[in-house]
Amino acid sequence: MEGIIIREMSSGDLPEVHALEDQCYSTPWSINSFKHELQNKDAILKAAVLNHHIIGYVCVRTILDMTHLLNLAVSPEFRRKGVGSMLLLEVIKDLKRLKPGIKLTLEVRQSNTAAVKLYEGFGFKATGKRTGYYQKPHDDAVIMELDIN
Predict the structure, then answer these.
(1) How far apart are CA 107 and CA 71, in angstroms?
(2) Which of 50, 69, 77, 129 has its CA at 20 to 30 Å from residue 112's CA atom?
(3) Cα(146)–Cα(123) distance, rounded to whole angstroms?
(4) Do the beta carbons of residue 9 and residue 46 sit within 8 Å?
(5) Cα within 13 Å of Cα(18), Cβ side
(6) Alpha-carbon dihedral of residues 44, 45, 51, 56, nearest 10 degrees?
(7) How is residue 11 annotated by DSSP?
């Protein structure tokens, strides 16, 4: 999509990010969770911005030799337009530069086939399942992993 800028998330973005989080998830993160990640030197947070409004964001954090995709959201009106791919691509570029050779892991709702396909398109492989991981509604999680090389 034309006009979208992917940039580092800042504390000034938190009200808009949190509003989007509430819109996208049945069990949303608190604003304090985002504040905590922004202060974490091992976290990467990116925002997708269009016309000065946040339409998506991603949060990853490295612990030792693994990086976990904690959160990825795109405004419903901008889904399936490449915004999630843009965010994921930027994070992967950063990880290749900052932490080459690590693994990027995530959990995704088993029922969220669009998200599973997005991750598979980037080369993620399903490595396991967490039964009953999600609530509201109840769902299993697919564990996926990507070697960053």
Answers:
(1) 9
(2) 50
(3) 6
(4) yes
(5) 13
(6) 120
(7) G
Residue 42 CA to residue 65 CA, distance in Å, equals 11
φ, ψ for residue 29 (rounded to 5)? -65, 155
Active site residues: 107, 119
Could you tell me which residues are beta bridge partners of residue 106? 144
Which has the closest alpha carbon to 45: 27, 63, 26, 71?
Answer: 71
pLDDT digit string, tens, across residues 6-42 = 999 999 999 999 999 999 998 999 999 999 999 999 9
Q: What is the pLDDT of residues 44-86, one digit of tens each?
A: 999 999 999 999 999 999 987 789 999 999 999 999 999 999 9
The two structure tokens encoding residue 78: 């901008």
Give the CATH number of domain 5-147; options: 3.40.630.30, 3.40.190.10, 3.70.10.10, 3.90.1150.180: 3.40.630.30
Number of Cβ within 10 Å of residue 100's Cβ equals 9
Task: Please say whether the beta carbons of 87 and 46 come within 8 A.
Answer: yes
pTM for this predicted structure: 0.93
Tokens of 113: 């086939």
